[in-house]
Write a structure and sequence with these properties.
Blueprint: H1 5-8, E1 15-20, H2 26-40, E2 46-49, H3 58-71, E3 76-81, H4 87-99, E4 104-108, H5 130-139, E5 144-149, H6 160-172, E6 177-180, H7 186-198, E7 205-209, H8 215-219, H9 221-225, H10 231-239, H11 244-264, E8 269-273, H12 279-294
Parallel strand pairs: 1-2, 1-8, 2-3, 3-4, 4-5, 5-6, 6-7, 7-8
Helix pairs in contact: 5-6, 11-12
């Protein structure tokens, strides 16, 4: 298995990866590790562990990432944000990651604590942009660095054009790849890829997907993706909203179709947002296998 995300792209086929978040309770912790063990058998190229707003789960993120590295066959990627940290604190965290043998990091500016869409206030001795965090990581070790990409543009970007320029700047500072915020139809990703390529940037952009397994995901889609849920698809779910089983079945079907489309469009990888549960992801994965074998 490749030991960096950078290496995984050399295989010449789409990467597959999963994202987890640090648990809050002992029961959540058990659920997470059950999910990790169930998904480990699928042999993903890497898995990532998120970092709570304001660094709220910093220690747990590092702990879980380190345990994945030592107790499983999986390749872990640690999320790192600039929210609420001075540069000195960020350097200390980077050192701790390096000491734990973690060399794959997803560099994010991060959301304000409490309200992801609230006003961004940088730490007075901290960093203001994800690109600054990429540069810091590049200066402090041989990290493979990923960044976020926004198919619908970042909620705080004034325009698509500004958002594209900021993304390209992150890449030019040393990002090896990007993972998109989740999207539910192909066009936003394809337009993003075209914009970035037109700007002269060829950094691989992995497609971030999540199956809709309940109506709550649709209701929170703007928080997840930065844009409202697609209206036409939302109307199809609304017709069956009172039937949870039908909602879930449609969600798996649509996620599988979208993943197939992304593979046919030549994406460098697909990243599944799991919500720390494996069943829906495994079902979509199983639906993809015939296409992957034929390829």
């Amino acid at each position: 298995m490749a030991r960096t995300v950078r290496d995984s792209f050399k295989a010449g086929k789409p990467t597959f990866s999963f994202e987890f978040f640090p648990p809050k309770t002992p029961e959540d912790y058990r659920l997470l590790w059950t999910t990790i063990r169930e998904l480990e058998s699928l042999r993903p190229d890497f898995v990532s562990v998120t970092y709570g707003a304001g660094g709220a789960t910093r220690d747990r993120t590092i702990e879980i990432t380190e345990r994945i590295a030592t107790d499983t066959t999986l390749l872990p990627v640690a999320h790192l944000t600039a929210v609420g940290h001075s540069i000195a604190e960020i350097r200390a965290i980077v050192g701790r990651l390096a000491d734990a043998g973690i060399s794959n990091v997803l560099a994010l500016r991060g959301d304000p604590p409490g309200d992801p869409l609230g006003e961004w206030v940088p730490h007075p001795e901290g960093l203001s942009y994800a690109g600054d965090l990429v540069s810091l990581l590049r200066a402090h070790g041989d990290f493979t660095v990923g960044v976020a990409a926004f198919p619908y543009k970042h909620p705080r970007s004034e325009s698509i054009e500004q958002d594209t320029l900021r993304f390209v700047e992150k890449c030019r500072r040393g990002a090896d790849y990007a993972i998109t915020q989740m999207f539910f139809e192909p066009e936003p990703y394809l337009r993003l890829r075209d914009r970035v390529a037109a700007a002269g940037c060829d950094v691989p952009i992995i497609a971030g997907l999540m199956p809709v397994t309940n109506m709550g995901i649709i209701n929170r889609s703007e928080q997840f993706s930065g844009a409202p849920f697609p209206a036409e698809l939302g109307a199809r779910f609304a017709k069956i909203a009172e039937d949870p089983k039908a909602v879930r079945e449609l969600g798996i079907e649509e996620a599988s179709k979208l993943a197939h489309r992304m593979i046919s469009e030549g994406v460098p990888g697909i990243h599944f947002y799991t919500l720390n549960r494996s069943r829906a992801t495994r079902e979509v994965w199983a639906n993809l296998m015939p296409a992957m074998v034929s390829d």
